[in-house]
User: Fold this.
Amino acid sequence: MTSAKVLYVVVCGAGAASDLEAFVRLAQGAGWHVRVIATPMGAKFLDLDRLAASTGGPVRTDFRQPHETSNGLPPADAIVVAPATFNTINKWALGITDTVAVGMLCEHLGMGVPILAVPQVKAELATHVAFGRNLDALRSMGARILFDPAAPPHARMPSWQDILTELNGILDG
Assistant:
């Protein structure tokens, strides 16, 4: 096992997920040991085998089975949720752990692991009252949110480099 810090990347089913490998490479280049956890819809945007090969471990998409004694993941030093969907943000804030991805987010938020969430949602969903309240709820629980609902649609999701820079800023205090 590497001595690098461990970064979990939780990926949801939104357009930016199809380019997740670029973020994985950036994070690895910055010294992170990356492991990927995907929501069921997020997994549909990914080449699971290629990501497993590049990260050294399978993409986690489901809860472990009763006979499995470990989830197979090294402990996380930080988590990036990108792209984070409307659905995942709302379920996470409410503690609805019906996917392994949201379950892990809830657990790690409770453990105090630094988490950066980067939503990618349509303008119509970004203005939904529940979404705004749930972003505020997550912030109040300690999650960092990188999101500008007023940004034009093509710029609403920051670049992978901007996400990594924000994560480093969080960790540097």
Summary: Strands lie at 5-11, 32-38, 78-84, 115-119, 144-145. Helices lie at 20-29, 40-43, 48-55, 86-94, 100-111, 123-126, 129-140, 160-171. Residues 100-111 form the longest helix (12 residues). The mean pLDDT is 93.
